[in-house]
């Protein structure tokens, strides 16, 4: 079984401000993007970094970029075209109006096809041109209390990262690196010729056991402090980790984002974030959690050790 070595966060990170003259990608009236921002407490930020290097049991899903839209069915539910540009993976039907019912009725480009979940991240740009990923791997991992982990409930949705970060220190959940090299950083790296840009995004593992969403789309989830779920969020779920590889290197990279309420394509790397809406076939997800996560094995896309 091929095992990737996750790079450690680089200690130094250079703060890069948004380019005020960035290309505006939408002409709609300004809307509040507060749902994209999140200030991690010092305790939660330490927990994010602590768990990034922890090995564990896992199973994988491989997907491709499905489509690109200015939609966000979690932060801007039922509001078409008001978000900055996102790259959607997996479910081909995902849009601003997506629900568990619509996703379950849709199709997916993920392997296995039993995963009809919606996954999305801001679109990457190279010199102002949108870039589709080469590959997307979504790891479901048991990194603590694996024997107690349960499958994500149907319809669970949550967001990770900080799209309104003003410095790399404000977004510990995202990391950028170069293929064939281990160092990583919270902002873009100048990847040399012969390598590709890749990014990791780590999701929380503790659920409050009650809510499928929350007002800021985060408070029903938490990162494990000291690899132990807090009493307010006692239910352990597998950690999602996105690994996305793009067919570019060098400089000139930016992300879809917002500036003063307008959608732009000039956001820095440290604003990377991601979203998840669970629409797995329940029996298949539960089987993988039981046979891979709980049992302590590393499984492939077929959910077999």
Topology:
Elements: H1 42-52, E1 57-63, E2 65-69, E3 86-90, H2 100-105, E4 118-122, E5 124-126, E6 129-131, E7 135-142, E8 157-161, E9 174-178, E10 184-185, E11 197-202, E12 206-207, E13 221-222, E14 235-236, E15 239-246, E16 253-259, E17 262-267, E18 273-277, H3 282-294
Characteristics:
disordered N terminus; mainly beta; about 300 residues; single chain; 6-stranded antiparallel β-sheet; 5-stranded antiparallel β-sheet
Q: Can I get a quick summary?
A:
The chain is mainly beta and 305 residues long.
Give a written overview of the molecule.
- The protein is mainly beta and 305 residues long.
- Helices cover 10% and strands 28% of the residues.
- The protein has helices spanning 42-52, 100-105, 282-294; strands at 57-63, 65-69, 86-90, 118-122, 124-126, 129-131, 135-142, 157-161, 174-178, 184-185, 197-202, 206-207, 221-222, 235-236, 239-246, 253-259, 262-267, 273-277.
- A hairpin with a 2-residue loop joins strand 5 (124-126) and strand 6 (129-131).
Distance between the termini: 10 Å
Low-confidence sequence ranges: 1-33
Instruction: Give the H and E element order.
Output: HEEEHEEEEEEEEEEEEEEEH
Dominant shape? globular
Structural class: mainly beta
> How many β-strand stretches?
18
Q: In which range does the helix fraction lie? A: under 10%
Please report which band the strand proportion falls in: under 5%, 5-15%, 15-25%, 25-35%, 35-45% or over 45%: 25-35%
Number of helices: 3
């Amino acid at each position: 079984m091929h095992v990737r070595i996750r790079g450690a966060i680089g200690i130094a990170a250079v703060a890069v401000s948004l380019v005020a003259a960035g290309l505006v990608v939408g002409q709609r009236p300004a809307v509040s993007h507060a749902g994209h921002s999140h200030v991690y407490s010092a305790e939660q930020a330490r927990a994010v970094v602590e768990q990034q290097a922890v090995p564990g049991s896992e199973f994988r899903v491989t997907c491709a970029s499905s489509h690109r839209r200015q939609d966000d069915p979690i932060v801007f539910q039922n509001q078409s075209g008001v978000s900055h540009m996102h790259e959607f993976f997996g479910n081909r039907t995902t849009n601003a109006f997506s629900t568990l019912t619509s996703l379950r009725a849709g199709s997916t480009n993920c392997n296995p096809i039993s995963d009809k979940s919606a996954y999305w991240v801001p679109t990457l740009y190279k010199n102002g041109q949108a870039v589709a990923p080469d590959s997307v791997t979504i790891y479901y991992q048991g990194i603590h209390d694996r024997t107690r982990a349960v499958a994500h409930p149907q319809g669970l949705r949550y967001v990770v990262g900080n799209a309104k970060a003003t410095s790399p220190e404000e977004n510990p959940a995202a990391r950028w690196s170069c293929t064939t090299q281990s160092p990583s950083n919270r902002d873009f790296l100048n990847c040399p010729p012969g390598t590709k840009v890749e990014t990791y995004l780590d999701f929380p593992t503790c659920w409050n056991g009650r809510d499928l969403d929350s007002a800021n789309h985060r408070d029903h989830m938490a990162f494990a402090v000291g690899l132990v779920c807090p009493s307010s969020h006692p239910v352990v779920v597998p950690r999602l980790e996105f690994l996305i590889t793009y067919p570019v290197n060098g400089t000139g990279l930016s992300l879809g984002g917002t500036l003063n309420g307008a959608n732009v394509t000039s956001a820095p790397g440290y604003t990377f974030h991601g979203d998840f809406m669970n629409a797995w076939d329940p029996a298949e997800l539960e089987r993988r959690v039981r046979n891979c996560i709980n049992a302590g094995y590393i499984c492939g896309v077929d959910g077999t050790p």
